[in-house]
Design brief:
Blueprint (H helix, E strand, L loop, with lengths): L4 E4 L18 E6 L7 E6 L6 E3 L20 E4 L14 E5 L3 E6 L8 E4 L3 E8 L2 E5 L2 E5 L3 E5 L5 E5 L5 E7 L3 E2 L35 E6 L2 E7 L6 E6 L4 E4 L18 E5 L2 E6 L2 E2 L19 E8 L12 E5 L11 H5 L4 E2 L2 E7 L4 E2 L1 H5 L5 H4 L12
Parallel strand pairs: 8-16
Antiparallel strand pairs: 1-18, 2-3, 3-18, 4-17, 5-24, 6-7, 6-27, 7-14, 9-12, 9-14, 10-11, 10-13, 12-19, 15-20, 16-17, 20-21, 21-26, 22-25, 23-24, 23-26
Length: 391
């Protein structure tokens, strides 16, 4: 959650009769988290927001299932090979998952014709390529290439996609998405020394689009169809802290030290059981004899997933935009051969990547196994140029 917003026509206080200019009673709709103890938003509809009946609604995506067990390994997946089109509400391909997160990719080529509600998780998208508009009952959020897009659990939404290639990462977070506590002060405001500010987030704006009447709800790892007697996009005003937004990764302002800083300094979003980090173009470590390349690392508690987006990544060879690596806890991982020596004396890195650190072990799906670069493990020992390159 960011901060409170107030949009449109609101009464002086909640839970009282509120009418439009013609004297018609408006319907108050409370969107709450953690029962009634957490953040909330109150919206005002022209029509009944709960006049739904069960219906057959086509859509949804294949839910993740674990691939057959395999030996522990550091892995590289060419997610680019999974581009298959379709609407965003129906075209996800799951790659990795645990109890806290589901990591998927999608390449939509048409817009959603239904509303989608994820009743299981908050959703965080990263747009590696493409753009469009997120339409919700609280308003619209425009997004572009290299934007994060957030949709809170339980909020009806649909995507209108631009023409041209699209490639997105999707993260379902059952424990929610928030900003790391380390970047907030005692009243919840982003600190002046935080790597981003409240002004960097694009908030929803009214659209006057009542939209379709069909709704697909994801709940308890299944999809359920409903049809509303009334339009959902009829909100005339709302206030609260539960709402969608977009954040451009290039607005992240990383810290640079005399020696290499750990990834937590790149922490951007806190998920229940996970942390999202943003690696953006920046000066590298500047101390005498500093080694800008990340040091070899053995994590005892974290599975690391990295989506490579653009530029030359300091520690890696043989990966390309859309490559996705998974380094499991318990096995050391580090730079490709030669990367450390090449990094010494450099002054700048143009890498752009999204990292997800997960506290619980991740399982991979059959779709991930089908696009695995099986030369990756060996390339960490011998020079990567001797092995297959990512597409």
């Amino acid at each position: 959650m960011l901060d409170r917003m107030a949009v449109g026509h609101l009464p002086d206080q909640p839970h009282v009769a509120h009418r439009d200019q013609a004297g018609n009673l408006l319907w108050e709709h409370c969107l709450t988290r953690d029962g009634f103890d957490g953040p909330y938003t109150i919206a005002y509809h022209r029509h009944r927001p709960h006049a739904w009946r069960p219906s057959t609604v086509f859509g949804g995506w294949k839910l993740p299932e674990a691939a057959p067990p395999a030996r522990m390994s550091r892995r590289h997946y060419r997610s680019q090979a999974l581009e298959q089109g379709g609407a965003p509400s129906a075209s996800r391909v799951g790659l990795l998952f645990n109890e806290d997160v589901v990591v998927s990719v999608l390449s939509p080529d048409t817009s959603d014709g239904i509303w989608l509600i994820n009743g299981d998780a908050d959703e965080l998208f990263f747009v590696r390529e493409g753009g469009g508009t997120l339409i919700t009952t609280l308003g619209a959020v425009r997004f572009e290439r290299w934007d994060y897009v957030f949709v809170p659990r339980g909020l009806p939404y649909r995507f209108v996609v631009d023409q041209g290639p699209q490639s997105w990462l999707a993260i379902e977070a059952t424990g929610g998405v928030s900003l790391p506590d380390q970047w907030r002060n005692q009243v919840g405001q982003l600190r002046m020394d935080a790597p981003f500010g409240h002004r960097d987030f694009r908030r929803p704006v009214p659209v006057g689009d009542e939209g379709p009447r069909e709704i697909l709800v994801k709940k308890n790892h299944d999809f359920h169809g409903f049809e509303s007697e009334e339009p959902l996009g009829d909100v005339v005003g709302w206030d609260g802290t539960v709402y969608p937004w977009a954040f451009p990764i290039l607005a992240f302002r990383p810290r640079v030290g005399q020696v290499h800083l750990p990834p937590t300094w790149h922490g951007t979003f806190a998920l229940g059981g996970a942390l999202v980090c943003s690696f953006v173009p920046r000066p590298v470590d500047f101390g005498r004899n500093a080694i800008p390349c990340p040091y070899p690392h053995s994590s005892m508690h974290i599975d690391e997933v990295l989506l490579y987006c653009d530029g030359a990544f300091t520690s890696r060879e043989g990966v390309g935009s859309g490559s996705l690596s998974h380094h499991p806890a318990g096995v050391p991982h580090g730079p490709h051969p030669g990367a450390v020596e090449r990094s010494i004396g450099t002054e700048w890195t143009d890498e752009l990547a999204v990292m997800l650190d997960c506290a619980k072990p991740l399982e991979r799906t059959a779709a991930a196994a089908a696009v695995e670069d099986r030369s990756y493990e060996a390339s960490l020992v011998a020079p990567a140029r001797h092995f297959a390159q990512a597409g």
